[in-house]
């Protein structure tokens, strides 16, 4: 029950992170246009490299280490301060490097300075601590307040294309304020600490080991926008960014299980409950598959109507990009379950690292010819190929530890239900008028039809759920 509760909290947390862009995107698409959106996407992709350098894998490492020691307050306190101060020092170095970069860069200086606040905000990001102790409520409440303030600020202060720097600054300041608001909640968990006893250095290498896969991940998450801005146009980076935002909103619901399950599985593994870790993987894999299949096929089916309604006709080029990129929803759901929910908690860092490095290398190799030939559509194809490589390697790496038969139970039924839903919704999308009411109707009908097919196909997950509900009624 605790895992389900934390999943709901974290799903809310992830959605709240993206809720402001989701609400403001139609407004900003009209106010800033493809060029303004593209400049933000391009400059933000650059600052993300510096944030990555300063973070040195702390988000994943800190989450796991806190989960290991959360039952001992003295160790918990010491571990927190060691990891926090290590990251703080690395972020300060990253700030110096970014300052030098701005001095040497002739274009977009004002926008880079506005983005720099988000780099500073990363120094005070301690969400990894609360994820490690499995307290997701505090981050949800904080995010709700901050995102509402951000939303109000955007509509008040961003009125024309000349307000792009103000928009970037609002987003950056919201990150800084949100991170600072987490600190008062630490007193509930931490005791007194002697700073003389802290050993920051012992965390550097283990965090750096997890830093390698984060570098690789960042390459195929952010490099696409950087390369599009440099090789094609700022507008192309903007088109890809709009598609990417929508994919991330959908993924937030699916991948929320990863952040919740990592400390839960790590805690079980630390106590020697190895069979439980495998059962957690099977259950989580079935759950994310059941969620991600309709999201993948559903988004692809409604994209041609959704894009002009949501972004305006200026962004019609986003349609083929989003239809292709929708495939990564299912692929990332699988790699999230295998990587974050099994490999990392069970200390199989090498396999996880190699998987994302393989994905980054594949992305880099295929990106150049595909972007040169097809622009932003090529970047979307490269993203899908990269995720296939990541998921494929992770599946191969666990071949001797798990049962593929249990892992892929009912996968053919989910895909059949998803394809059936896609066919119905796509036909409705062509026939029905282009308005919000029709779009809402298509989504609702698609969800209901998918659920009916799951029941008709007798999916095991549905049978288990019905059994639990029957048992709850009897008691």
Automatic annotation (TrEMBL):
Keyword annotations from UniProtKB, A to Z: Membrane, Transmembrane, Transmembrane helix
Q: How does it sit in the membrane?
A: Multi-pass membrane protein
A Gene Ontology cellular-component term: membrane
InterPro entries on file:
Polysacc_synth, PolySynth_Transporter
Location within or outside the cell: Membrane
Q: What is this protein called?
A: Flippase
Q: Where are the transmembrane segments?
A: 7-29, 41-63, 84-104, 110-133, 140-158, 164-183, 204-223, 249-269, 281-303, 315-339, 351-368, 374-393, 414-433, 439-459
């Amino acid at each position: 029950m605790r895992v389900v509760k934390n999943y709901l909290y974290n799903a809310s947390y992830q959605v709240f992170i993206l809720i402001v862009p989701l609400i403001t995107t139609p407004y900003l698409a009209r106010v800033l246009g493809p060029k303004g959106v593209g400049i933000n996407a391009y400059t933000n992709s650059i600052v993300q490299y510096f944030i990555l350098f300063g973070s040195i894998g702390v988000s994943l490492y800190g989450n796991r280490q806190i989960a290991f020691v959360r039952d001992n307050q003295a160790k918990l306190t010491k571990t927190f301060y060691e990891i926090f101060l290590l990251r703080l020092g690395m972020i300060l170095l990253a700030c110096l490097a970014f300052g030098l970069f701005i001095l040497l860069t002739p274009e977009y200086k004002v926008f880079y300075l506005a983005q720099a606040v988000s780099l500073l905000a990363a120094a005070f990001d301690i969400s990894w601590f609360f994820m490690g102790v499995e307290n997701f409520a505090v981050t949800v409440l904080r995010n709700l307040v901050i995102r509402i303030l951000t939303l109000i600020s955007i509509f008040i202060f961003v009125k024309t294309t000349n307000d792009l720097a103000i928009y970037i600054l609002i987003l950056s300041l919201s990150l800084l304020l949100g991170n600072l608001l987490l600190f008062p909640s630490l007193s509930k968990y931490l005791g007194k600490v002697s700073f003389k006893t802290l050993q920051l250095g012992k965390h550097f290498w283990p965090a750096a080991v997890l830093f390698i896969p984060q570098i690789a991940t960042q390459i195929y998450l952010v490099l696409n926008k950087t390369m599009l801005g440099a090789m094609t146009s700022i507008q192309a980076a903007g088109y890809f960014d709009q598609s990417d935002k929508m994919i991330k909103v959908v993924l937030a619901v699916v991948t929320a299980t990863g952040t919740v399950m990592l400390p839960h599985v790590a805690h079980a593994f630390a106590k020697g409950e190895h069979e439980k870790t495998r059962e957690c993987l099977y259950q989580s894999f079935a759950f994310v598959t059941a969620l991600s299949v309709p999201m993948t096929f559903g988004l692809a089916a409604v994209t041609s109507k959704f894009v002009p309604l949501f972004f305006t006709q200026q962004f019609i080029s986003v349609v083929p990009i989003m239809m292709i990129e929708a495939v990564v929803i299912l692929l990332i759901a699988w790699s999230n379950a295998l990587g974050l929910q099994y490999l990392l908690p069970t200390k199989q860092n090498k396999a996880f690292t190699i998987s994302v490095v393989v994905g980054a290398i594949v992305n880099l190799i295929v990106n150049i010819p595909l972007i040169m030939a097809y622009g932003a559509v090529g970047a979307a194809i490269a993203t899908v190929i990269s995720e296939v490589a990541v998921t494929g390697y992770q599946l191969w790496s666990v071949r001797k530890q798990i049962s593929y038969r249990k892992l892929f139970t009912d996968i053919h039924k989910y895909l059949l239900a998803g394809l059936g839903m896609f066919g119905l919704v796509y036909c409705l999308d062509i026939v029905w008028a282009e308005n919000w009411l029709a779009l809402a109707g298509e989504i609702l009908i698609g969800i209901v039809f998918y659920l009916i097919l799951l029941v008709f196909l007798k999916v095991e997950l549905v049978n288990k759920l019905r059994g639990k509900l029957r048992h709850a009624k009897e008691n």
